[in-house]
Amino acid sequence: MKFTQAGKMAIAAVLSNKLRSFLTMLGIIIGVMSVTLLISLVQGATNTVTSSLDDLGGDQLVASISNTSKRLTLHEVEALEGSGGIARVSPVLNGKGTAKAAGNSTDISITGITSAYQEVQGMDLENGRYINENDVEYRLNVCIVGSGVAKDLFGNTNILNETIRIAGKDYRVIGVREEAEETMFGSANDGVFLPFTNAQRLLSSVNITTFYVSTSDTEHTQEAKDALDQMLMNKYGDEDSYTIVNMMDIMDTINSVMSTLELLLGAIAGISLLVGGIGIMNIMLVSVTERTREIGIRKAIGAQKPDIIVQFLIESVIISLMGGLIGMGISQGILTLINTLYPGYNFNISGGVAGMALAFAIMVGVVFGIYPANKAAKLKPINALRYE
């Protein structure tokens, strides 16, 4: 009952001086807003980056060849499949070009792929089929187009067996890729996928400089990396001629860096909360001075030291907690606006961040309210009643 009564009195004291209470809360509002906003932005950016990497193949190995003096053939790359924990190997060849059809033209990204691409990299089709081994073996003039290319050229995505022209050659559309969201690495909607051997001829590039490797399971990733390293070392005899990247290592590194950044920004923003706490202490000391006679009357009619301490502590915590809730509301509003302006991102205040911010705000209210509350509780009734 004492806590209930103390709470009512504290709320009444806060509401009796609305402007002063709001100005006191301002430091906490800014502090909580800063903490939740900065940490949520870092978490959202981390999730976006790792999601993009995962879409590219989070459990993959990527081999990049810098030495082009020796030609790495498609047969040599595909021979890796089934050895040392390697499941599938997908070489890719990238280029740029212009596609024309139905009196329209559009700039495109060209990607040469094999039948393994679907298993290694993944690709969802709206309709049609994937590129198969026959397409690659016989260099057939077929292609899979992104939804953006289909709409730019034909106005719709129902274009199976239509013909598009690239660099003076006609290609029959055998598949249309499902519309994909744009990521920080670009969009697949403006891409055209050709059989790897056909793309080699179209782009006048015979060397394989990049290929992706999927493993049978995550436990065999290191084994697969060792097998891949051994093959490339035998081929080039120099480890500077190639690079093997484990996508999981990249994600782990990014997560580690972002976690450190999250702590750093949280600590910097936390300083605002401490400044807000000093403001609370200052205004509570003023409140104690203003209400000296009230304290004297309460003690004269039987209020004990703990009763006075609880009353002023609750008032301090209420100010701090209300400031924290307002700051969190403003932060969520800003994040919602960012999500609206940039649909590719998803920034939200997580439960952990919200709980941490509110707990810290309450702690600030308690820590910076103890001294004023204790000062009020130590007042002697006779001196307090004589105070003018």
Helix content: 55-70%
Strand arrangement across the biggest beta sheet: 3-4-9-6-8-7
Query: In total, how many domains does the architecture comprise?
Result: 2
Q: Could you tell me the mean pLDDT?
A: 84
Number of helices: 13
End-to-end distance, in Å?
Answer: 31 Å
Query: Biggest β-sheet, characterized?
Result: 6 strands, mixed, barrel
**Structural class, judged by helices and strands?**
alpha+beta
SSE blueprint:
Blueprint: H1 2-16, H2 18-57, E1 60-65, H3 74-78, E2 86-91, E3 93-101, E4 104-113, H4 117-120, E5 125-128, H5 133-137, E6 142-145, H6 147-154, E7 163-166, E8 169-177, E9 191-195, H7 196-203, E10 210-215, H8 221-236, E11 242-246, H9 247-290, H10 292-300, H11 305-341, H12 351-377, H13 381-386
Parallel strand pairs: 4-9, 6-8
Antiparallel strand pairs: 1-10, 1-11, 2-10, 3-4, 3-7, 5-8, 6-9, 7-8
Commentary on this structure:
- This protein has 13 helices and 11 strands.
- Strand 7 (163-166) and strand 8 (169-177) form a beta hairpin.
- The protein folds into 2 domains: 2-52 and 252-386, no CATH class; 68-237, no CATH class.
- The chain is an alpha+beta fold.
